[in-house]
Amino acid sequence: MHYGQTVILGLLLLLQGCLHVPGTSSLSNTTYTGPVIDMHLHALGAEDQGPPPLALCAGMTAGTAHDPHQPWGQAFLAQMKAPNCAHPIWSAMTDTELRDLSLAELERFNVTAVLSGTPARVADWKEQAPGRIIPGLGLNIARDPFTPEDIAQAFKDGNLKVLAEVTNQYSGIAPDDPRFDAFWQVAADLDIPVGIHIGVGPPGAAQLFSGYKAGLHSPLPLENILKRHPTLRVYIMHAAWPMRGELKAMLYAHPHLYVDTGILQMALTREEYYDFLEDLVRSGYGDRIMFGSDQMVWPGLIEEGINAINQAPFLTLQQRQDILYGNAARFLRLSNETNHKPQK
Ligand SMILES: [Zn+2]
Fold first, then answer.
1. What is the phi-psi region of residue 114: left when phi exceeds 0, alpha when psi lies from -120 to 50, beta otherwise?
2. Staple partner for 116: which of 14, 138, 280, 314, CB 3.0–4.6 Å?
3. CATH placement of domain 33-46+94-334
4. What is the pTM of this model?
């Protein structure tokens, strides 16, 4: 396609966007512009994913063919240093820049975010933007020193609202591993919503984390927990991609189970992300999908994630609002505070 054709096509698309034909469900030009809830934001340091700057390209599942003469970790880092795509998203350079750029993105898109991280860092971010942050606590029981009693005390003492992100999967610990039983019990006793990582890590995760296994993308082991604690609110972070059959069985059997879309906007090709999302929506689960950016050190992931929902051609405006706001507000039982009311 040469430049002249591009301009004409652009004008046609522009006209199409302006014209509303009554009786047609013109899905593609209905952008949701109300408040957003991000169920999956991290408060990290700028160097926590490797030496900055690092770039991500959308569609990380593509182009991962690898000759193991070189460790995958080195190859992946080299990709992030020299991204092979037209619109890479670059990481922040310093901790302060990462925090401030992330909070600026929340402000720009009217986002309130469940923030995962160490207590000190979450408190610092919340102090900078009190109205934008729902404080969470990140936890990997193989790595973090917290006992179940510590967690209970932290939630009783502080203003923590969500136990997320639970990242035990990186250490090979399944949701129903007995080592996590007492933590589930605390969450159930104190009515703490839990977000647990079930699904994608970085590409080649099994080569990067000794405990990581693709088999743990399955949401089925979570079922034992949901049956044991029927009042517990749990959401599957990363939506257990790509185990869509297993996920649909779980959503069907457990109507209080939710998922978030964290990192799917980057990890998957957009075709696969939309196919997966459309499959879930078409199956009737559009009221339990919650937007998550999984912003780590790349503040631009927030915009990319919101745009991906707004540009999904199969979603109605109502479905976009549900995913970007309404489902999370229901899951978190947010009161009708004015800042959480969707604008029509
Ligand atoms: Zn995760």
1. beta
2. 138
3. 3.20.20.140
4. 0.89
Torsion angle, CA of 308/310/314/317, rounded to 10 degrees? 160
Residue 197 CA to ligand 1 centre (angstroms): 5
282 neighbors 312 (Cβ within 8 angstroms) = no
Domain ranges of the chain: 33-46+94-334
Q: What pLDDT sits at residue 1?
A: 41
Query: 238 C-alpha vs ligand 1 centroid, how far in Å?
Result: 6
201 Cα: distance to centroid of ligand 1 (angstroms): 6
pLDDT of residue 341: 45
CA atoms within 13 A on the CB side of 337: 10
Distance 300 CA to ligand 1 centre (A): 17
| Cα 326 to Cα 23: distance, rounded to the nearest angstrom | 26
Ion ligand 1: residues, CB < 5 A: 197, 237
